[in-house]
Amino acid sequence: QVHLVESGGGLVQPGGSLRLSCAASGSIHTIRVMGWYRQTPGKQRELVATITEGGSIVYDDSLKDRFTLSRDDAKNTVYLEMNRLSPEDTAVYYCYAWSTVLDGEHDWWGQGTQVTVSS
Q: Which SS3 state, helix, strand or coil, does residue 89 take?
């Protein structure tokens, strides 16, 4: 089992910044990928950014100039720094982890944290 807890969401004005955190617990050693997705009402959950066990990072192309994903291995935590936010970034942001164990692979999701960009 992997448990993910997000924090850092909230209300921010256009042009502002936020940093989201996701702390993982449980079977940490099985995690191969962690990252963030986001979802708005009526739309599918979409990739924001992910980082592999080896440190390779993938961003959605439209976000990579404003968003930065990082990881603190000592804290089992990934961070998403979001800059120059616009109302289009308003969404529920979900932490994600993909793990592999003897019986297969598993997707894990946090409970989600709301980010609202509005004046």
A: helix
Torsion of CA 115, 47, 35, 114, to 10 degrees: 10
Residue 49 burial (10 A CB sphere; 0-12, 13-18, 19+): buried
pLDDT by residue for the chain (119 residues), tens only, comes to 999 999 999 999 999 999 999 999 999 999 999 999 999 999 999 999 999 999 999 999 999 999 999 999 999 999 999 999 999 999 999 999 999 988 889 999 999 999 999 99
d(CA 108, CA 34): 9
| Residue 77 contacts residue 21 (beta carbons within 8 Å) | yes
How far apart are the C-alpha atoms of 96 and 13, rounded to whole Å? Answer: 26
